[in-house]
Amino acid sequence: MNTTKHSTKLNRREILFSLGAGSMALVTLTMLPGLARADKTAADAEIKKILGGKTAQDGRVTLDVPQIAENGNTVQLEVAVDSPMTEKDYVKAVHVFADGNPVPNVASFHFTPASGKAVAATRMRLAKTQNVIALAEMSDGSIYSTQAAVKVTIGGCGG
Amino acid sequence: MFSRRDFLQVTAATAALTGALGQMARAAARQAISQDDLLRFDALGQVTLLHMTDLHAQLMPIYFREPSINVGVGAARGLPPHLTGKALLDAFAVSADTPEAYALSSEDFTALAKTYGRVGGLDRLATLVRAIRAERPGNTLFLDGGDTWQGSYTSLVSTGADMVEVMNVLRPDAMTAHWEFTYGTDRVKELVDQLAFPFLAGNVRDTEWDEEVFEATATFERGGVKIAVIGQAFPYTPVANPRYLIPTWSFGIQESLIAERVAAARADGAELVVLLSHNGFDVDRKLAARVDGIDVILTGHTHDALPVAVTVNKTLLIASGSHGKFLSRLDLEIKDGAVADYRYRLIPILTDAIAPDPEIAALVEKIRAPHAAELSRVLGQSESLLYRRGNFNGTFDDLICQALLQERDAQIALSPGFRWGATLLPGQDITVEDVYNQTAITYANTYRNEFTGTFLKEVLEDVADNLFNPDPYYQQGGDMVRVGGLGYTIDIGKPIGQRISDLTLLADGSRIEAEKNYVVAGWASVNEGTDGPPIYDLVSRYIQAQKVIRIDDKPAIKVLGA
Prior knowledge:
The complex is a heterodimer. Chain A is of the alpha+beta class. Chain A has helices at 12-17, 23-30, 32-51, and strands spanning 57-58, 61-64, 75-81, 91-98, 105-110, 118-124, 130-138, 143-150. In chain A, a hairpin with a 4-residue loop joins strand 7 (130-138) and strand 8. Chain B is α/β, with parallel strands linked by helices. Chain B folds into two domains: 44-63 and 117-352, Metallo-dependent phosphatases (Purple Acid Phosphatase, chain A, domain 2, 4-Layer Sandwich), CATH 3.60.21.10; 369-560, 5'-nucleotidase,  domain 2, CATH 3.90.780.10. Chain B is built from 18 helices and 24 strands. The relative contact order of chain B is 0.14. The model of chain B is unreliable at 1-19 (pLDDT under 50). The A-B interface holds A 13-14, 16-21, 23, 26, 29-30, 64, 66-71, 76, 129, 149, 151, 153-159 and B 178, 234, 236-241, 243, 250-253, 256, 280, 301-303, 416-420, 447-452, 454-455, 458-459, 462-463, 465-466, 471, 473-474, 476-479, 481, 496, 514, 517, 524-527, 529-531.
């Protein structure tokens, strides 16, 4: 499994309590809400492409992500699809999107019956709190999906 | 899910409680609560679980006022432990003016504190633990829910060594952790190596190899029953506390991992499965509804004290308070690998009623002796009740915020919504020890920075969602960030981004403007490299200059949807 290496960049949590962070960083941050709306649209468009007019069904897909990211730069992700993985019935691909990222495509995993099971894990970078969406394309053309919210929080005030 | 039915079970359980309370009320009337009154318990079954949690290094007796505002959201709305004051007393049929009312609620706190005196003191708790162990020698299992090594002057200067020394004598059978991790990776490993009992934290994994860092499960046999204790550290330690202190450790709730460990314990023959948890009460309530097979969750982190066990999905949830103020005793009858019956008592540690354990008392004195002069150094006096606990500002936080505003010449002060910190009564001296009891952390440096109005709102929104997100799995278990020089309205039931409004600069009553910069001072930054003076020095200096502290308990925060 590939683990994408990201360059480090200030996240919101780091901006908040960093003494050196000047107004430049803060200006960038205040622009995020506008970007977020655009990103969600981008994710919707990508998902539409995969659906191709079909409706995604619930179930079969398990998405394991943290509720609150410890580090938005590397968020663990594991996706599993319940499937016999036979020639007749298998998972062709699993697509993962993050609807608040500037580029919503996180990863696409392709499987064959020889894969044995449809499980994949990687790490992703999340710019801010958002939904992670997984779509599984089955060999019979049906599509299953699930989603989970991952918070990228400022933190710092635990009991 | 948690339902009305679960709440009814709670209220039904109060029937059993009333008997013990009645005795306590009569004892109170005689002004003579004895150690025997506190220990009175009709033993039941094969196993006695003892639980203490969130001691926050309070070796000495203190005052501790429970919250007057502790709002529950989502499914937990209006349910214990989100009842406070009179509503709490009514729900558990506790009479006003009794020792239980003093211990459990904020009602009439100052007057009752004068009647019943201080609470806690590890030498007093030790006396009860020893007595119960002597009564039930082969049956007792004593568990510590963590947040034990942090929160006092001596714990900070010894980086936890004082607490490890004392706890090794008190000897719980296992512990889990949260603030312990703020001593950093190397120090935690060093201290864990010195422990005379297991340090259980099944949800802590190494970021490089995804391997377990600590033991997850310990097994015991008590009264012929095989017991598995699974340890669950605070899931959001690297989020709520500085990640740079523990950069290679990853946490999280790890629900499926807990389910695996429960199944493994059962397969291994455990007849009683206990989760020793630092998740927080609402997180554990949700967890209990979703993971089958846990008999008992000993909850911690959110500092709730409940006089009854709450049942969810056949799991008993126990909430044992904080600061050494309570010891929980849960007797269990196990039949065919399940809990057939139980009896529970939340024992208040009323200091004056209990003889100190001589061994622990001597050890505590030895630990404090080198620091005695500094600990008892008087900085000033308080005319007001100084406390912290509650969802919004506490009066001690108001004092801290005032100190930040003045000493750092700021317009706005931010202070973390910790749930620990002892209470001072009106008229008490404020000593160095008292200041450390509110501020003793390993990342205590203050910052001074300019924030835009937009960013300030974003900070408040973010913290509010950590507290009031209707899904407990997204809650971090602290209280709202404390503010000085700033007023606002919060609508708890709204989603993130829409809770906070009417941000007002108190100095001149002007509205906070989105694009304008404001000078903000604060402490407990989770980032490395904060280099202002540490908060305990700053607050000490401020109190010394003021001499007399008076805080008007008039919050500048308007709360809607509570």
